[in-house]
Design a protein that fits this description.
alpha+beta, BirA Bifunctional Protein, domain 2, 2 domains, 16 helices
Length: 521
């Protein structure tokens, strides 16, 4: 028998002793007055004299995270996931049932303590316990006693232990909840209507990504988990709802990394009669307001990201894709002329080509010359090379908030074209902390142009681009009824939470991230 098995057997025996004595081992409820964090908040300033003059008796539940015995007195840390309250217990003064609960107490047990609030000689706010109630026995010991769960893998796999022992993890998810509430309040004040759209789609659309496939048995129909709600939300613009948003779960069948989880949360909103310039202003307002919310919860004057302060003062920097590659990435402007010059730059810098272009790498050197005519973002190969060069030379350098605009048409099938720059679109991505936080554009609302873009995406799929859009005939039909000019945007709630709580991994801000099963599961 392992040491863990022995500990579990000992704890089971203690539970049985309580049951044999007629003590409920899993009672149905507990009449409480306040949890430990509330007690500390309400009586933080109360002195020993105050508590003596106006006695406070309370019933407080929580989890036992520490027990310190000094002679005939025990000091127990009772925790609620946020803060602890010290219990002062004199076992010989407890009622018989309460004494039995104390004698069979283990770290991790959930108990209810009733007594009088005092200050100890050291000034610690404490509950002098007159009664102790068993609420749940922890059959398994908590990790590393009361010092918190340090093993990162275990924290993700067993989030309940992480929350029970790491108050900072609890604060991260409190910030996340406050950010979502703040997003709703921000958009509601501006007349946006919150809606819900389907999570199972006949056709995956609204983003370039690989979908998850499922099957509806009754209809004998293959369906896709949504990669984005965009096309449904824009149908609502056609239907006459001018400002609409959804805080939604998206699913993308892609790799897992510190910035990617197959299931993630997005805010998407659409604003009729606005364009991407309006969205940039709105985004600055939203993120700075949310940053203030995070600071209050975390108790910080300023926010930082991985050792660097976040400089959120408006206005934020703005570059086109090409400007960023040249000014931030340090690339010669001549390298952006056409596919041949781009491919040559990849070779010189030892960069990797986009996966879909690896098989045609020789094509760039053999069939194109560096003095060929300049190309623009309407050419798919040129567009993908330009974006890949940006990702590898610029993206991780954008630590402070920066809008990147002017994406190629070939990689922006739902964006309205820029009338001043053929081959490019009225689109932006917001970068912060070296990663993309938001994606937005002036929405394409010409049904004929959109149909042509969809046909181009089908051709890209035929040439091996598994992320390209399918042709959505019903969406084209909706556009043919007339969609007003509009701006639309998606903001990653997970990544925004990462930034505002200074967490380097997306798994730190998702309660139950997807992980590879452990051996034997």
């Amino acid at each position: 028998m392992s040491e863990l098995d022995e500990q579990i057997e000992v704890r089971r025996a203690k539970r049985q002793r309580l049951a044999d004595a007629g003590i409920a081992t899993y009672p149905h409820r507990y009449d409480q007055d306040a949890e430990p964090s509330e007690v500390r908040a309400r009586w933080a300033e109360a002195s020993a004299a105050d508590l003596e003059a106006a006695p406070v008796t309370l019933r407080v539940p929580g989890r036992v995270l520490a027990v310190r015995v000094h002679g005939k007195t025990a000091f127990v840390d009772l925790h609620d996931g946020r803060e602890k309250l010290q219990l002062l217990i004199r076992p010989d003064r407890l009622p018989e049932a309460a004494r039995l609960v104390y004698d069979n107490l283990d770290l991790g047990d959930v108990v209810g303590a009733a007594g009088r609030l005092i200050r100890t000689r050291t000034g610690e706010l404490s509950l002098e316990v007159a009664d102790l109630t068993h609420l749940a026995k922890a059959l398994r010991p908590l990790p590393e006693k009361w010092h918190g769960l340090a093993d990162v893998e275990t924290r993700y796999r067993q989030r309940y232990l992480d929350l029970a022992t790491n108050p900072e993890s609890r604060r991260v998810f409190e910030v996340r909840a406050a950010l979502v509430a703040g997003i709703r309040a921000f958009l509601d004040r501006r007349g946006f209507l919150e809606v819900e759209t389907p999570m199972m789609h006949l056709l995956p659309g609204g983003a370039t990504a690989r979908p998850f496939r499922t099957h509806h048995n009754a209809l004998d129909l293959d369906l896709y988990l949504r990669i984005a709600p965009e096309l449904f939300l824009k149908r609502l613009l056609v239907g006459g709802i001018p400002r609409v948003y959804e805080i939604n779960r998206n699913f993308r069948n892609e790799g897992i990394s510190v910035r990617h989880n197959p299931e993630f949360t997005m805010l998407e909103f659409y604003w009729a009669y606005a364009d991407y310039h309006d969205l940039m202003e709105l985004t600055e307002e939203l993120v700075t307001e949310l940053a203030e919310t995070a600071k209050k919860i975390l108790g910080k004057e300023e926010l930082s990201w991985q050792g660097r302060p976040l400089e959120l003062a408006r206005p934020w920097a703005r570059y086109t894709i090409q400007e960023a590659i040249v000014e931030v990435g340090g690339v010669d402007p001549a390298a952006l002329r056409n596919r041949a010059t781009l491919a040559h730059e990849f070779e010189n810098r030892g960069l990797y080509l986009p996966a879909s272009l690896d098989t045609t790498a020789n094509y760039f050197h053999q069939d194109l010359q560096r003095d060929d005519p300049a190309e623009d973002g309407s050419n798919s190969d040129y567009a993908h090379l330009l974006m890949a060069l940006f990702e590898q030379t610029v993206e991780d350098k954008l630590l402070q908030p920066t809008f990147i605009t002017g994406h190629p048409t070939a990689v922006s099938p739902l964006s309205k074209g820029d009338p001043e720059r053929p081959g490019f679109t009225e689109r932006f991505e917001l970068y912060l902390g070296g990663m993309e936080i938001a994606n937005a554009f002036s929405e394409l609302n010409d049904p004929d142009v959109q149909a042509e873009r969809f046909r181009g995406q089908l051709q890209a799929r035929e040439h091996g681009d598994a992320e390209a859009h399918l042709f959505d005939h019903d969406y084209i039909r909706a556009l043919e009824h007339g969609m007003p000019p509009a701006g639309g945007e998606g903001i990653g709630v997970d990544r925004l939470t990462m930034l505002l709580t200074d967490r380097a991994s997306i798994r730190d801000v998702i309660l139950f991230p997807l992980l590879r099963p452990e051996a034997g599961e």
